[in-house]
Specification:
The chain is α+β, with helices and mostly antiparallel strands. Helices cover 21% and strands 32% of the residues. A six-stranded mixed β-sheet has the order 10-11-12-9-3-13. Strands 14-17-16-15-18-19 form a six-stranded antiparallel barrel. Strand 6 and strand 7 form a beta hairpin. Helix 2 crosses helix 7. The chain starts with 6 loop residues before the first helix and ends in a 5-residue tail after the last strand.
C-alpha cells in the first residue's frame, strides 16, 4: 500500500487508515459524524493525495486527448478544468477524470489505482501524434476544502478576501509560500475548493490551513464522511458506482459529455443512446430506512429484479441509510417502493441529489 505523503500528520491527529486500490486513505479521525457536520456547517479539510495523475505533453496533446474523451478539450482555455469520461468503442467506461489544461501540458486527475489503466488505454491509440504520457502522481496532490466557511478560511490564510470560485473555474495563488492552483468544487456545496499543491509543499499548506481554521471550526475529513457527502450529492464514483460495463449516460454523466465536439472514441454509442432518449437503467437515490444493506443487493418489484445497490451509507444522526443504485427506467419515479433482496426490507426511490 502506497502511504500518504502526510501520513505522520494524520497519525498525530488520531487518524485511522484504509486502503483504496493500493493507496492509503484516511478512513476517519475518530469521529466521522463530527467531520461530516464540519463539512456541512463550517469547514472541513480532506487529503485527496491518494488520487493519481497523468500528464500529457507534446504539440498534439490537445487534439489527441480531444479524440479520446467525452469532453471538449480543445475548447478549454489554459487554466480551465472539466470533468470527463474515457470510454471504449462500445461506449463502456474505462475511467472518469478531471482534465486540467495548463499552458504547456494537460493533466488528468484520476481515482486511486487507475493511472496505469488509463495510460495503457491512451497509449493504444497513440500512434503518430506528437504527444507523450507521464506519471504525474508524485508531482502534485489535491487537498479539498468543503463547507460554508471555505472562503473565510482561504481569506484568512491568503491575507485578503477570497471571492468564491465557480465550479471548475481555477485561480492561481500563493499559500504559505507555495504556488497552488485553486479550483471551484461542485459538491457537497458550491463553496468547496480543491487545491492542486506541489508534493514538496503539502505539509506546509496543510499546516497553514489547519492553523488558520482553528477558530472557524475546521476539522480534517476522512473517507467515510466524504462518502456520505458524495452519496447525498448523488455523485457516482468509478470503481464503486461505475465499472467497465457502465455507459456514462446510465450514471447521469451528461455534464461530462460534449455533443458538439466531433468524433471521439465511443461517440457513436453515446449519440445513438441520446437519440433514443432513454437508457434501460439509470443511477438513482434510494432511501433504505433503518435497513443496513450491503452494496450489490438486488432491488425487486413484484418479485422481479429491477436493479441493485452500489453504495450504502448511514446518514449521520438519523440512523437512516441512504444508497445509490441502478434502477430500471420503468421504476425511476421518486416515491416508488422496491423490495431489498428477498424482503421484507424496502427501498424508496429518491431524486438526486438527496434533499
Amino acid at each position: 500500500m502506497q502511504p500518504l505523503s502526510l501520513h505522520f500528520l494524520h497519525e498525530q491527529a488520531g487518524a485511522r487508515f484504509l486502503e483504496a486500490n493500493g493507496r492509503e486513505v484516511v478512513a476517519d479521525y475518530g469521529d466521522a459524524e463530527a467531520e461530516y457536520r464540519a463539512a456541512r456547517e463550517s469547514v472541513a479539510l480532506h487529503d485527496a493525495t491518494y488520487r493519481e495523475a497523468l500528464r500529457i505533453t507534446g504539440e498534439d496533446r490537445t487534439s489527441f486527448l480531444h479524440g479520446m474523451v467525452t469532453q471538449d478539450v480543445k475548447g478549454l482555455v489554459a487554466g480551465a478544468s472539466a470533468y470527463t469520461a474515457l470510454i471504449t468503442v462500445k461506449g463502456a467506461m474505462v475511467a472518469d477524470a478531471r482534465i486540467l489544461r495548463r499552458e504547456n501540458d494537460l493533466v488528468l486527475d484520476l481515482e486511486p489505482g487507475l493511472g496505469a489503466k488509463v495510460r495503457e488505454f491512451l497509449e493504444k491509440f497513440l500512434i503518430s501524434e506528437d504527444a507523450e504520457l507521464h506519471d504525474a502522481t508524485e508531482e502534485q496532490g489535491v487537498l479539498r476544502l468543503l463547507g460554508p466557511r471555505t472562503s473565510e478560511l482561504l481569506g484568512a490564510v491568503l491575507g485578503q478576501p477570497f471571492a468564491p470560485l465557480a465550479p471548475n473555474a481555477t485561480r492561481g495563488a500563493t499559500l504559505a509560500g507555495q504556488d497552488v492552483l485553486l479550483q471551484g468544487s461542485t459538491w457537497p456545496s458550491a463553496q468547496g475548493v480543491e487545491m492542486w499543491v506541489p508534493r514538496p509543499g503539502l505539509e506546509t499548506v496543510w499546516k497553514a490551513l489547519v492553523a488558520a481554521g482553528s477558530g472557524l471550526g475546521l476539522r480534517p475529513l476522512g473517507w467515510r464522511a466524504l462518502e456520505v457527502l458524495r452519496v447525498e450529492a448523488g455523485v457516482p464514483r468509478y470503481g464503486q458506482d461505475m465499472v467497465d460495463t457502465t455507459i456514462p449516460l446510465e450514471a447521469n454523466l451528461t455534464h461530462g459529455i460534449s455533443y458538439n465536439k466531433g468524433c471521439y472514441i465511443g461517440q457513436e454509442v453515446i449519440a445513438r443512446a441520446t437519440f433514443r432518449g432513454h437508457m434501460n437503467r439509470k443511477l438513482a437515490g434510494l432511501r433504505l430506512g433503518t435497513a443496513e444493506t450491503a452494496p450489490g443487493t438486488e432491488l425487486k418489484k413484484d418479485g422481479k429484479k429491477v436493479g441493485w445497490l452500489t453504495t450504502v451509507v448511514r446518514a449521520p444522526g438519523s440512523g437512516q441509510f441512504l444508497a445509490l443504485g441502478y434502477v430500471h427506467r420503468d421504476h425511476l419515479e421518486p416515491g416508488t417502493v422496491l423490495t431489498l433482496g428477498d424482503g421484507p426490507a424496502e427501498a424508496t426511490v429518491s431524486a438526486l441529489p438527496f434533499a
